[in-house]
User: Fold this.
Amino acid sequence: MALAQAAADEARAAGEVPVGAVLVLGDEVIAKGFNHPIGGHDPSAHAEMAALRAAAQKLENYRLPGCELYVTLEPCLMCAGAIMHARIARVVFGARDPKTGACGSVVDAFANPQLNHHTTVTGGVLEDECGAALRSFFADRRRAAREARAAAALKNESDTDASRSDNSQTS
Ligand code: ZN
Assistant:
């Protein structure tokens, strides 16, 4: 999970929502991935998808039986689907996602025995730490947005002042 957190830091450095994932087979790290839908112009570029793609390429197999996926945030429905298609043995996630979590928070894709028999899920591992990285990212983003609005308001004011003084000079 620490490696997944490091991958999440990479996402943050790229200005993306900080989510990271690591795929492990036994003791070996097969692949890592971080969330990058904005930079990748790709709605499917979640951390899990990036790690699954990299692992499948590396192992030259579209199925990844026996692999475990560690991810800092509860997977969404898209990623849960890809995890099932890849036959991942186990998913371990950090923070729960009350908006799009598909491992019990909003829906539980893995609870349906008709959909999947393969993947066991463990949630809430280093939940506080994984959640704190996300909360601080969004707090920073809100602060930046506030500052940008304040700067824009200030600029409008000074522009208005400038046009006023222009007017007074021309009249
Ligand atoms: Zn996802």
